[in-house]
## 1
Amino acid sequence: MIEGRTLERIVETRDPAGTRALAAALAVAARPGDLISLVGELGAGKTQFAKGFGAGLGVTDTIVSPSFVLMAEYRGRLPLFHIDLYRLAGAAEALAGGLIDERQGEGVTLIEWAERLEDAMPAGRLDVLIEGAGDDPRRIVLRAGDAGYTRYLEALPANWVAPTAEPATERAPEGSGR
Ligand code: ADP
Ligand code: MG
């Protein structure tokens, strides 16, 4: 806690739509210059989170994994910069490549595999730690690096529950007239 403010929240999502909905809800809190670190194993849902965050920012272009470019930029309520460090050897290489530049001050920067930047990551950031893979539910830890980032945690209603796709068995069959 900093001045009585919660620095961490943990939510669960059961499918990719739930993770996207979480990210979209958080995007309401976005301000220019924000930095969000996405951490989790391959297939955890970091890119799904980025897609949902973009949707929340009003990005209409399709957000794809930027694995073959260092950084992709999208236009929304604020510019969104999406970085994926998966194929990068290390922090030095990333920084030498101009990973963090002044343009990002005008938008929100999401970094997948941000832990690879180690100490080069500023403390002022939101950490999104995604645990789980495959069809398992995801446990998602949201951690504010400083008091400025608690607004993301506060943007999420206290009783927020991820929406899940309706199970197929409960859906009326096609043409059943229901
Ligand atoms: P990463 O970027 O972390 O490598 P992706 O977002 O590209 O992961 O992929 C996550 C995969 O896991 C997708 O195939 C998605 O459909 C699946 N998935 C299953 N459940 C969830 C969930 N609760 N949240 C996010 N993705 C999920
Ligand atoms: Mg990814």
## 2
Amino acid sequence: SERTLVLVKPDGVERGLVGEVISRIERKGLKLVALDLRTVDRQVAEEHYAEHAEKPFFGSLVEFITTGKVVAAIVEGPRAISAFRQLAGGTDPVEKAAPGSLRGDYGLEVQYNLVHGSDSPESAEREIKLWFPEG
Ligand code: ATP
């Protein structure tokens, strides 16, 4: 069994889609092992998206993620990292995410794509430590 860091981003929280995200995680058979509604420090946001620091959208992405509440969760299960990314769908909600996925069903714009899920075991470990430093 594996752990992944899931975020419902501010667009998902504002639109009232937290229940929908959690419901799909649970229906898939994955388990919540931590769940927290919070606002994000600039420092945590910049560290979370450090790999995109040089991208033109970095500033606006950090701004977006820090301006509203997010839900941070640790999700566990067999192949949890891939399983959640399947539930989320591709990064671009129109061009990449299939209908039936969270982004495919509810998203229109790349930046406002509702959720985040770790993309590898290394990212999951790093992100879980960043978002839940208390363990
Ligand atoms: P996440 O890391 O949030 O799960 P991802 O792994 O599907 O998303 P990445 O390529 O790592 O996608 O991009 C991280 C996030 O940055 C995306 O989820 C999206 O919110 C934002 N993003 C990516 N590309 C763009 C872009 N061209 N314009 C604006 N925002 C973008």
## 3
Amino acid sequence: IFRATKRPGGIMKKNSRLILALDVESRDKANSIASETEGIFDAIKVGYPLMLSEGLSVIKELSNIAPVIADLKIADIPNTNHLICNRLFSAGAQGVIAHAFTGRDSLEACVDVAKRWSGDVYAVTEMSHPGALEFMAPVAERMVMLALVAGASGIVAPATRPERIRALRRAAGGLTIISPGVGAQGGSLRDALEAGADYAIVGRSVYESANPRAAAEALLDLI
Ligand code: O7M
């Protein structure tokens, strides 16, 4: 608990409250969308699609435009988690995303590495898709408690179910809540933020738009 209260909410700078999920599969496309929307997003989330296509070097490139959160939803034993986090932070990530279901020791391994790099760890509690109701939702509050105890900066909670953001916010205290599921998955930006999310994560509704900057600005207008 002490560690969690020592660095509540992490180091991401809250401005637009929007995080771009850049799930495109080419470096050029990633760079062009990130440049076009420069100044709008508080962070860019890069995951498997782009990292498997183009390698870890995209992290450093994109971090010239906005802080990068590396989303590999890390879920391994503590030693492997430690190695993965070191790779991601040394590649220039400012934050990483790790699953909470693997338990305290695995999540703490991520937090230990993040602290060395002055970076953030966001723990996945309940995901935004319908399947998350099968195994994750029933134990999501416990995973939030784990995120607090392990010293994570924040949690991931579903914009597709604002009532669950509200419940997880009650458990999460001052942890940062980042929330995917706005737009393409049917979630409402306003509802997610009103329910207690600090940031909304938005992907397809921006990067698949004919005019990503206009799409991002339209989201800003809603906030
Ligand atoms: O706006 P979308 O639906 O195109 O993209 C949403 C992004 O958020 C995409 O990168 C997903 O992998 C991610 N995501 C979810 O959609 N649901 C979750 O529960 C968790 C994530 C996520 O980012 O976890 C950190």
